[in-house]
Specification:
about 250 residues; alpha/beta; Rossmann fold; about 15% strand; binds nicotinamide-adenine-dinucleotide
């Protein structure tokens, strides 16, 4: 029997990047996958088809994770269509990097709303089913800059630090119902999000990494597999850095 056979996983923002890699990895280990992204477009349809090759149930949903009402509706729909929600991966996120002196109110609000409020929205909607079934694993994508801060990312770092506080609080709140909640703090991972950075900035990051390479989405997905499964049954309220020893 596969590690996640019969389990239903929700992953937000999984039409590409780390979310997509997590979806593929968990499907490989037998999980049924419900994933969201802003649009149900060709990229999302392709992810759905790739997932189905593992012989599991897979479906993509268009949903703005930062919208409270929409989130309640999509989670209720997934529960109806899949029959349970066993794992929630809060992955959807954005960057709008600039120095604080240039940062607009809009840039602050957008990043906090999409990165932090989305985690509240999905966790609140999914936990009611997890509480009833007395089991669940919630995995939140934070970042090493949520732990250490980073110049030019005050909004993003604040949102990712907020996720850590939220993760630890939820772990304490719902632990007695056999629900675990952990955060992954990736370092520099090669995705479309980091492709926006200049070659010089990317090289500078890589030189700071003791393992001397940027991480891959699969490096993060392997950690998500551990946290989603019973292999981590006594791990909750933790932040796991996946950063090639960049931050110790
Ligand atoms: P990405 O930009 O490649 O993918 C993010 C996905 O989220 C996209 O498909 C996007 O459409 C979706 N999304 C954005 N806003 C959304 C919303 N409101 N509702 C639903 N979906 C939405 O990013 P990535 O590099 O794969 O990052 C995934 C997560 O990992 C993010 O939370 C990011 O902050 C975090 N992270 C990434 C890195 C890195 O180096 N790439 C490092 C640390 C943390």
């Amino acid at each position: 029997m596969k590690l996640l056979e019969g389990k239903t996983v929700i992953i937000t923002g999984a039409a590409r990047g780390i979310g997509k890699a997590i979806a593929l990895k968990l499907a490989e280990y037998g999980a049924n996958i419900a994933f969201t992204d802003l649009e149900y477009n060709d990229a999302a349809k392709e992810v759905e088809q790739e997932l189905e090759k593992f012989g599991i149930k897979a479906k993509g949903y268009a949903s703005d994770a930062s919208n409270f009402e929409e989130t309640q509706q999509v989670v209720d729909k997934i529960q109806k269509e899949f029959g349970s929600i066993d794992v929630l991966v809060n992955n959807a996120g954005i960057t709008q990097d600039t120095l604080l002196m240039r940062m607009s109110e809009q840039q602050w609000d957008a990043v906090i709303k999409i990165n932090l409020k989305s985690v509240f929205n999905f966790t609140k909607a999914a936990q009611k089913y997890m509480l009833k079934q007395k089991s669940g694993s919630i995995i939140n994508l934070s970042s090493v800059v949520g732990v250490a801060g980073n110049a030019g990312q005050a909004n993003y770092s604040a949102s990712k630090a907020g996720i850590i506080g939220f993760t630890k609080s939820v772990a304490k709140e719902v632990g007695s119902r056999n629900i675990r909640c952990n955060a992954i703090a990736p370092g520099f991972i090669i995705t479309e999000m980091t492709a926006k950075l200049s070659e010089d900035v990317r090289k500078e990051w890589e030189q700071k990494i003791p393992l001397r390479r940027g991480g891959t989405p699969e490096d993060v997905a392997n950690t998500a597999l551990f946290l989603a499964s019973e292999l981590s049954s006594y791990v909750s309220g933790q932040v796991i850095n996946v950063c090639g020893a960049m931050q110790t």
